[in-house]
Write a structure and sequence with these properties.
This protein is α/β, with parallel strands linked by helices and 417 residues long. Helices cover 41% and strands 17% of the residues. The longest helix has 28 residues. The termini are far apart. The chain binds pyridoxal-5'-phosphate. Pyridoxal-5'-phosphate binds next to helix 6.
Length: 417
């Protein structure tokens, strides 16, 4: 059956769909598949216990049924929005009102709204793109536009550090913003690299965005104040020209599909309209479960005292393991400053990262090939074929078995070369 242009675009192969299919296979496959691919957060017992208590309370008080038996408005559950307003104003003095926040069905959903609102075809035959100033960037952005060629990205500056580490920086000299750019977007911490843009980089991007009269979108899915999976110094950032996106997913509720957008009233109003048409209203379960945690600010304590230390310790263990098993000087790890991933760079790898992905999958290990993470960038840069993303947040035993398979494969490839 012939599909529309829209249909064809959204039925072709996409990296994010492959990734989510792999993730689902892994979940179904149980112990046989080592899932170091997708972005599933870890099951942290202390967080899960608290969430269980909260869900039981909702059930006992009849609030679970209330939430399930009623639609919220297109902006999302008001009680949760009001609690978030208070939380952010208390923590950071941002002077928000309820007109500055809306909820979506996961932040993935918010990016689809935003990219199509700010990029794509404009009147007068004009086409605007969303600029990713620091490639590599999140795989989930890659196909989230109804327009073709909706994104443009800029290669990073690479700083090689001691101890087999490296770090990407924004190459401001290469960043050209003109009338063809509709918005700037960064994930901070960055998925896939674990990079955290410095405060100076964020201020500089903010300044460029304002000068060009376009918004700066900051994807804070792993950031502050929750789930706070950040291991370096970073100051939370928002102003009237910033669109800050958060999520309950990496706090431990990815199945609740709750994204949070903080922006000026005009953007929220536009998003509200999109939400009404595309979803009627965002789901209320996540907001209802998390409401007491936000009201009491317990969400901050759990993030700072449980979630952040949990991931930091996992990241350190995984780095030590990788570096003990792969000793080639051609192997580098991006400095782990946040998020759930390690970004591994195999310089002069004799096969592409996608071939490596297939080789590892045959052995029961799922990682994600790095080439997917360069939306908007020409792939004629060898570096795009030399990296993989690894989720370090799974059980220690799974990470250890996965890293062993990876190390054996890489060591063999390097020795053949
Ligand atoms: N942004 C980043 C950087 C992510 O890594 C993810 C998920 O992995 C998302 C957004 C989307 O998350 P969700 O739609 O679950 O809020």
């Amino acid at each position: 059956m012939p599909y529309s242009i829209f249909g064809n675009k959204f039925t072709q192969h996409s990296g994010i769909t492959e990734l989510m299919d792999d993730l689902n296979e892994g979940v179904k496959g149980g112990d046989e598949i080592l899932m170091l691919g997708g972005g599933n957060p870890a099951a942290i017992p202390e967080v899960q216990e608290r969430l269980n208590e909260l869900m039981q309370q909702l059930l006992d008080e009849g609030k679970l049924l209330d939430t399930l038996a009623n639609y919220d408005g297109p902006q999302g559950k008001n009680t949760f929005i009001n609690a978030l307003v208070e939380l952010f104003n208390d923590l950071y003095g941002w002077d928000l009102s309820a007109q500055n926040i809306m909820l979506t069905n996961g932040s993935q959903n918010a990016f689809f709204y935003l990219f199509n609102l700010l990029g794509g075809n404009f009147s007068g035959d004009k086409n605007k793109k969303v600029l990713f100033p620091l490639a590599p960037e999140y795989i989930g952005y890659a196909d989230a536009s109804v327009s073709e060629e909706a994104f443009v990205a800029v290669r990073p500056k690479i700083t090689e550090l001691d101890n087999g580490l490296f770090k990407y920086h924004v190459d401001f000299d290469a960043l050209k913003i003109d009338d063809d750019i509709g918005a700037i977007c960064v994930s901070r911490p960055t998925n896939p690299t674990g990079n955290v843009l410095t405060d100076e980089e964020v201020k500089h991007l903010d300044q460029l965005a304002r000068e060009n009269n376009i918004p700066l979108i900051i994807d804070n899915a792993y950031g502050m104040p929750f789930p706070n999976i950040i291991f370096s110094e970073a100051t939370p950032f928002w102003n009237n020209n910033t669109i800050l996106c958060l999520s309950l997913s990496k706090f431990g509720l990815p199945g609740s599909r709750c994204g949070i957008v903080i922006a000026n009233e005009t953007i929220i109003k536009a998003m509200n309209n999109l939400s009404g048409i595309m979803a009627l209203s965002p789901g209320g379960i996540g907001p209802e479960i998390a409401l007491p945690l936000v009201k009491s600010k317990e969400i901050i304590e759990l993030s700072n005292n449980v979630i952040r230390p949990f991931y930091l310790s996992k990241a350190e263990k995984a780095i030590a393991l990788l570096q003990s098993k792969i000793t080639s000087p051609k192997f580098k790890i991006h400095k782990a400053e946040g998020a759930l991933f390690l970004w591994l760079w195999f310089k002069d790898l004799p096969i592409s990262s996608n071939e490596l992905y297939k080789k590892l999958k045959e052995q029961g290990l799922l990682i994600v090939s790095g080439h997917y993470f360069f939306p908007g960038l020409d792939q004629d840069w060898q570096h795009t074929q030399e990296c993989i993303r690894l989720n370090y947040a799974q059980d220690d035993d799974v990470v250890e078995r996965g890293v062993t398979i990876l190390a054996d494969t890489i060591n063999e490839l390097y020795s053949e070369n």
